[in-house]
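Bumping with the actual sequence this time:
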Amino acid sequence: MEKEKNDADPSNFRRMISESPGQFRVGFELGKNISLSGDYSSVEISGMGGSALPGNLLRIYLADHFRRFDGKHPIAIYQNRFYGLPHEAYQKGCLNFICSYSGNTEETVAAFEEAIAHKLPSVGISAGGRVEALCREHGIPHIKLPIPFPNFQPRVGTGYFFGAIFGVLVKLGMVTDTCDELTREAEGLVSEMSTLEERGKVLSGKLVGKTPVVYASPRYKAVAMIWKIKMNENAKTPAFWNFFPELNHNEMVGFTNPQGKFFLCLLRDADDVPQNLKRFDVTARLLEERSISSEVIDMGAGSVFTKIFRTILLGDWASYHLALRYGVDPTPVNMVEELKKMLA
């Protein structure tokens, strides 16, 4: 895909999106090269922001993975987005992954220091920073992530984290090795990239001047959350997310008296429970009667892995082109950096 630059996109965020499927192959190799021993039955993933998103997606993929391979017992995947560790991190047989692209995320570093203080088995994943330094100081395995472009953003580095963690699980024998299969599926997304970008560009035109609200099924609720996050960080606009059928029991009623202009993006999986699928169209009709616009976005055919990352790419492109329509640079997150300075 041509990696053209745009005056409104000085850091070439477009290139970060278009080349992201290649991250999985790199991540798998990084994970498999880690020297680690032990008998583990669960995983705790500590991270914030873009460095935490791979954990949400790994949970979706592994739920399907364990259904496919009956010989492997499911492992529990826990997540931590705070300064300390939850009680699951202390369970016998729990392996802690410490994820921070910069290596300096203060909440994640604090959680890591707690893990070190209690001698909890851990693996650090970062591009450097304090996480790497602590790993070296305490003899803890560290996976060093690449920084492929200047101003590279963690929210676009999901494939590196996902691949690295999965590679470690393969190395430890905790999951069946499907790295080659997933690499082929990731490469297959490249052939869809132009179509996905065009679809995202068209969708962005419908979102201008409105607050995106993203809904999905329970299985893919993390994908809806990631769409919301990409709208926040790329297009610098508020956005919200939820999932069927829960939203029909509460959030939907809020549109009786909306205080702004909204546009619903309904991420629909054809393999969802039939009665739940009805809710997408019925909800759209109900809210259309109340002047709330919406679009049902089919996730398309393919495996769970392909559906996850195809749909995320579509959200990447929609939020990217929405940023350009608003005349904002999609790369920096200046308010986050301002907050960090104020906290310091």
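The tokens above came from a reply further down the thread. The mean pLDDT is 95.
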